[in-house]
Structure formats: structure tokens, C-alpha cells
Amino acid sequence: MDLTFASFSEISEAVKSKKVSAQEVAKHFQTRITTLNPTLNAFTTVNEEALKDAAATDARIAKGEDVGPLAGVPFGIKEMLCTKNLKTTACSKILSNFVPPYDATVVARLKKSGVTVMGKLNQDEFAMGSSNETSYYGVVKNPWDVTRVPGGSSGGSAAAQSARLVAGAIGTDTGGSIRQPASFCGVVGVKPTYGRVSRYGIIAFASSLDQAGPMVSSVKDAALTLEVISGHDPMDSTSSQKRVPAWSKDLSTDMKGLKVGVIKEYLNGGVDADTEKTFNGALEALKKMGAEVVEVSVSMSEFAVPIYYLIATSEASSNLARYDGIRYGYRADFPSLSGVELEDFYGKTRGEGFGSEVKRRIMLGTYCLSSGYYDAYYNKAGQVRRMLTEQYLAAFKSCDVILSPVTASPAFKVGELISDPLTMYLNDIFTTSTNLAGLPGMSVPFGLSSQGLPIGVQVTANHFDEQHMLNVGFALESVSPVKGSKPHVI
Predict the structure, then answer these.
(1) Strand 168-173 to 188-191 pairing
(2) 62 contacts: CB under 8 Å, gap ≥ 6
(3) At what angle do helices 219-229 and 466-479 cross, to 10 degrees?
(4) Cα separation, 256 vs 288, whole angstroms
(5) For residues 51 and 30, what is the distance between their CA atoms, to the nearest angstrom?
(6) How far apart are CA 142 and CA 129, in angstroms?
(7) Minimal CA–CA distance to 316: which of 432, 208, 452?
(8) Which residue among 21, 131, 153, 317 is the active-site one?
(9) Parallel, antiparallel or unpaired: strands 292-296 and 259-263
(10) Active site residue: 78, 111, 141, 191, which one?
(11) Is 240 annotated as catalytic?
């Protein structure tokens, strides 16, 4: 078995049947991390206990214990998720020495299912960015072209998965942070319905939008991971009590009778030729498999990006207020300050601890929440968000899923947009609506640009209808013209 490209089921079954040990699997991927990470910068921390953890899995198998459905599968975890005794920094100076005393629920459930945690994965600082260029630990490189970004904010997860430094990775998605890097790096990325996955132990960016999800190499692996990490958690009052279906067992490529919606407001151009060709190719493929394509209207989607940035920055400014050097985080060298006022202490600590993109969003959010502006900005954005959600719910009365591009173009060059934040924000135009409405969405690789860069298509479904979404992704994957393509760095 070629461990590098083996599926979760292949690795797990081989480990359980003792054809290969969990330790051998972990060693294999440790070697890949050592070899390729200096080029990609996808890992921030390598788990020194990984072999010991894998040995514990082997010992449990030797005793005849049930070690779970993902036995011995090596995973990388995005820096936003707390990992017990393993540094968790959100890729920010202000949390650079934080070692959590507990696991996030997602991590705890992965460990219970038998995975080996290989380490922590790079990201934009506090998940704020669309290119993975704002990390305190430096830029992550795209494995398909190291002069280009991997996307953000889960760029480290996408790059590590694409180059197979791990068999699976976890990302978080606040406005497209799983789907956009998945598209840029040619992997499958899933953002579940809001509430499907517990947020306990995930460092908060925008609490009403954040969701964790898998970034893996196939739709089946995504479904398996989702089954493991989903479900109600008493530690998160926003997590749903809905039953978790066995999505992986019910995957189907039968598209007969399925209605695929296309948002007519998305048909007004604005995407590059390769992206448009990929999207049209995916639509034609679904038609050939028996699906019916219908046009739907979500006119409020044109306001999605400004609504998103009003809500996300407002919630971020509130969530990040705790990092003041007293309650949490890095503390500036206060005795050397000329001033002695508390305001000076906060200013120096937060000024040194946060990067420029985080400061920009905190200032925007604080302004939106300030006295006299709350009703005009945050409250109004919430009202428009509700109208957007109602339009999506109306659209799903005439279709089962909605297909769209993920981004307007393939991965751009490192440094190309970092000084133009407005253009960078507009890159999220196809993904932010899904988070605002709390819908599930996924990116599936379906094309390559003329420069050989991956391009994904986005499948969005109604609340808690992940099965339809995964089935369409599974069908597209089965006929994808780029199936089996590998990044140049491998």
C-alpha cells in the first residue's frame, strides 16, 4: 500500500489488521513533513509525541480494543483549535506561548476515533485573511506553485493536505476559509451547517459564523471525518442536537431527479475564463448524470461581502478584547514605557501583539459597535443577513443544491494583493453568503487553469442537508477531469 496516497479506510483497515502499525504510518508522514515543510511552511508545530500516541493505538489494537473508525490516520490541526499540551497560537504573537490544558471538542473526538495528531497547521493570524500571508509565522506556499498563495485562512491545512504531509487536516471557515484554500490547493474542503460541529475549544473569531470542517483528499474521507466530529456538545450551547447521519455509507452518484440551482445574480461575469469554464463543465457533467439545472434568485447576495465584514469585524473586536496582556496573551515590557497609565499598557501590548490585518479589523468592528453607530451598522447588517437567509430558504424550495464557483480566479501570487485589502475582501464574494445563512458548503476540485493551478466548484445545500451536498460532490469527483492530479512539489 502506498501510504502517501492511501484513503482513510485503507489506512485504518491496514492498522487494525496489523498489516502496518500506526507507528509506521506516523513515521512515514513525519518524514514527509521533515522533507517538504521547509519549502511549504505549512506546519507551525510538529507534535513530538506523535509516535508515542501512535504506539498507544497499536497497544490498544493488540489488546483487542475498538480504536475507532480512523485508527492510525495522521491528521494536522489548524492553529485555531486548542490541543492539550501542544502549542496553540492562532498564528499571532499575542498567543505565541499559549499551551492549552485541554482539547477542543473536534480534536477530542478525532483522538477518540483513533487519529494520530501530527502537529499544528499555519493560518492567517486569528483566521483573518484570504491568502495565508498574515501569519506571525510567515507565508504558506501553494504546493502547485510555490510563488503563489495557498488561500486563507486555512492555507496551512490546505497545503499540508495537498502535498500529503498528512492524510487529513482540519480547518475552520468563517467566510470561506476552508473552501477557498481547498479550491486553490486542489483538495476537498467542507464547511458544515452552523451548529453541526461544536465550537468549544476553537479560538473565537466571529462566533456567529465560525465552523470547523475537514480538508481531505476525497469526498468519502470528508464524509467519514464529518461523522466523527459532528454532534451535540454540552460545552457549546449553539451545537445542534440533530442526529448525525452515516453520510459515508449513503454516498451516491445517482443524480437522476436532482435539481441543481444556479444563482442568476452570479451569472453576470466577474470570474476569469478558466474558472467560468470549470463551473460550466461541472454543470454539464451533472446534467449528463441526470440532474436538472434550474435558475434561482438570491438578490441579496450582492450585499453579502459588506454584511459579512460588518458582522465579522464587530464580533472579532469583541472576541479579541480579552487579549490585553492581563487576562490573556503577550504582555509588553511595561516598565520601560514612559507613560504609567493603564491605557498606555493596553496600547503597547495590543500594538505589539497584533498584526496589521487584525488591527484593521478590530478598528472597523469597534467603530461599528460604538455608541451612535450600532443601529446603523451592526444591527442593520443583522437585519439584511436575515433577509439573505430567507432568500436562500426560498431558493431551496425549487432546488436541492446550489452550484457556484468558489472564487473569482485561481491562486494569485504571493504579495500580489496584500497591500490591497478591499480587493482581497471581494475575493470572498462566492463564499460569505453560506456562512451568513449558516448553510453547509463544500469545494470539490474540478479543473486546472491554463497555468496548471487547481480550480474548485462550490456545492451549497439547505440547513442540515449535508447528504445532498456530499452526494453531488461525490458525483462531481467521480467524473472530475483533474482526478488523480498531483501538485508539482510532490
Answers:
(1) unpaired
(2) none
(3) 160
(4) 9
(5) 9
(6) 15
(7) 208
(8) 153
(9) parallel
(10) 78
(11) no
Residue 327 CB neighbours (<10 A)? 8
List the one residue out of 338, 330, 348 whose CA is nearest residue 96.
330
Contacts of 246 (CB under 8 A, 6+ apart): 227
The full DSSP string for 186-235 is T-EEEEPPTTSB--TTBPPSSTTT-EEEEEESSHHHHHHHHHHHBS--TT
Task: Indicate if 177 belongs to the active site.
Answer: yes
Q: What's the CA gap between 463 and 469, in Å, rounded?
A: 11
Quick check: 337 pLDDT over 90? no
Cβ(456)–Cβ(183) under 8 Å?
Answer: yes
pLDDT tens-digit series, residues 243-263: 999 999 999 999 999 999 999
What grid cell was written down for 387? 433577509
- Asked about 348 being catalytic, the answer comes back as no
Separation of alpha carbons 208 and 188, rounded Å:
24
Q: Which residue has the cell 480494543?
A: 65
Sign of the Cα torsion 305, 311, 314, 317 reads negative
Identity (one letter) of the amino acid at 447? G
- Edge-to-edge strand ranges of the sheet holding 259-263: 43-46, 116-121, 74-78, 168-173, 211-216, 188-191, 441-448, 454-461, 401-405, 259-263, 292-296
Query: Which CB contacts under 8 angstroms, 24+ apart, belong to 363-366?
Result: 363/317, 364/309, 364/313, 364/317, 365/312, 365/313, 365/314, 365/315, 365/316, 365/317, 365/318, 366/317
Exactly one of 177, 317, 433, 449 is catalytic; which is it?
177
The per-residue pLDDT for range 16-58, each reduced to its tens digit, is 999 999 999 999 999 999 999 999 999 999 999 999 999 999 9
Q: How confident is the model at residue 326 (pLDDT cuts 50, 70, 90)?
A: confident
For every residue of 60-91, which 3-state class applies, written as one string? HHHCCCCCCCCCCCEEEEECCECECCECCCCC
pLDDT at 303 (0 to 100):
93
User: Alpha-carbon distance 292 to 186, whole Å?
Assistant: 26
Instruction: Report how far apart the first and last C-alpha atoms of the chain are (Å, whole number).
Output: 18
The confidence band for 452, taking pLDDT boundaries of 50, 70 and 90, is very high
Q: How far apart are CA 438 and CA 398, in angstroms?
A: 19
Residue 304 pLDDT grade (very low, low, confident, very high; cuts 50, 70, 90): very high
Q: Give mean pLDDT, residues 301-324.
A: 95
**Contact yes or no for 211/104 (Cβ under 8 A):** no
